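I have been asked to look over a protein record a colleague put together. Alongside the sequence sits a line of tokens, each denoting a local backbone shape. Please read both lines and tell me whether the tokens look consistent with the sequence. Take the sequence as given and treat only the tokens as open to question. I have pasted the whole thing underneath without changing anything:
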Amino acid sequence: MKKITLLITDDHKLVRESLVMLFDADPRFEVLAHCGSGEEAVELANRWHPAIVMMDMNLPGINGFEATARILKESPLSKVLAVSMHTQPAYVRKFFQMGAMGYITKNSSREEMVNAIIEVYESRKYICDEIKNILAEQELSGEAKSDGLYALSKRELDIIGLVKKGLSSREIAETIQLKVKTVEVHRYNILRKLKLPNVAALVNYVNHSQMAADL
């Protein structure tokens, strides 16, 4: 079997080096490079074109979401497997919207991590058991999709991220190449879906929402 090439990204050096040791010891894998920031991940992926990029979310500089989008644009044959400490389904949804093929948590076992890599390598989407259990519990308790972020499209999440940076509708329109009126429609729909009364409430939401803070 051809070795599965890996790029490992994690801002914690100990975690990163532990993963490198783990996969270097397994003949099925080859670690091409590892790094601790989103910018480095994009640069290394473009240089080495690994089969799998193991992507953390909380990174210095650009976060894992943005790094994922950039990597898949510049190295389209690579696949991204998110490896995160976050268990909120909203984060999972966001990663998949950015193009990731899999999501596992840092509580996942070695066996599950290996299985996730193989599944993603073979172009099958993968969500770890911990997240599946959380989704099942929410469904059974009637809490599924209680977070308004679930109702937002990728474009709307992008706009929330730009609102967080303090951009006006005109500046957002220039950044993502839309008409100002279209941006205003998106902002109206965001307010409606999140059940917020006005833009000030949206800004407050962005500043206090755990997920929105990472956009």
